[in-house]
């Protein structure tokens, strides 16, 4: 069973002006595709070639884990964005954010602060804790909450390939733009 690059849930130009069609073409069409291709080469003919991405992530390490986790993380990331996204969170996730951080503005400041302080490459997540609350978690390289039994609700890619076409080295400008695209409906689906 070969893994396939999932289609974006919107047109490549749909996230402009915040993320350009060129950035999505490179990030999804080339970078994400390379992880899927490498993953397929690694699992072909092994006991992993019939397993799900989640099973591979939870049972491996090293290069195989990296490729599977990057494929999963990127797919999740694309769904966290929407051309109709942005605004303040609503529903269960909105309530959980207010309960944990007081206000959406305070949550956004904490999220951006952790993302800006994150050295190197990785991801920044909003995860659901076992007690039903939410927490901001930064992960390095391809690490992912599903490898640790956590429930991911939202992710933002912090690898430079996510923003250097549109924002060069300015991670802060990228983070401000990303808030205009957050798909709170998808984030709410992940709560349950």
Automatic annotation (TrEMBL):
Residues 3-82 form the Manganese/iron superoxide dismutase N-terminal domain. PROSITE patterns: SOD_MN (PS00088). It comes from the Bacteria. The keyword Metal-binding applies. One of its GO terms (molecular function) is metal ion binding. Pfam families: Sod_Fe_C (PF02777), Sod_Fe_N (PF00081). The keyword Metal-binding applies. Residues 89-190 form the Manganese/iron superoxide dismutase C-terminal domain. InterPro entries: Mn/Fe_SOD (IPR001189), Mn/Fe_SOD_BS (IPR019833), Mn/Fe_SOD_C (IPR019832), Mn/Fe_SOD_N (IPR019831), Mn/Fe_SOD_N_sf (IPR036324), SOD_C_sf (IPR036314). Keywords: Iron, Metal-binding, Oxidoreductase. Destroys radicals which are normally produced within the cells and which are toxic to biological systems. PANTHER family: SUPEROXIDE DISMUTASE, SUPEROXIDE DISMUTASE [FE] 2, CHLOROPLASTIC. Belongs to the iron/manganese superoxide dismutase family. This is Superoxide dismutase.
């Amino acid at each position: 069973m070969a893994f396939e690059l999932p289609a974006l849930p919107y047109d490549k130009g749909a996230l402009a002006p915040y993320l350009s069609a060129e950035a999505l073409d490179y990030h999804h069409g080339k970078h994400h595709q390379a992880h899927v291709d490498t993953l397929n080469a690694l699992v072909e003919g092994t006991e992993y070639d019939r397993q799900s991405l989640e099973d591979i992530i939870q049972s491996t390490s090293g290069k195989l884990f990296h490729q599977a986790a990057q494929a999963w993380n990127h797919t999740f990331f694309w769904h966290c964005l929407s051309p109709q996204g942005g605004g303040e969170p609503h529903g269960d996730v909105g309530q959980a954010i207010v309960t944990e951080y007081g206000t959406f503005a305070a949550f956004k400041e904490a999220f951006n602060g952790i993302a800006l302080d994150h050295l190197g490459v990785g991801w920044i997540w909003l995860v659901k804790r076992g007690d039903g609350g939410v927490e901001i978690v930064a992960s390095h390289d391809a690490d992912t909450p599903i490898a640790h039994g956590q429930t991911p609700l939202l992710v933002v890619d912090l690898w430079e390939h996510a923003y250097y076409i549109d924002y060069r080295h300015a991670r802060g400008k990228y983070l401000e733009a990303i808030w205009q695209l957050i798909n709170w409906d998808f984030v709410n689906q992940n709560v349950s």
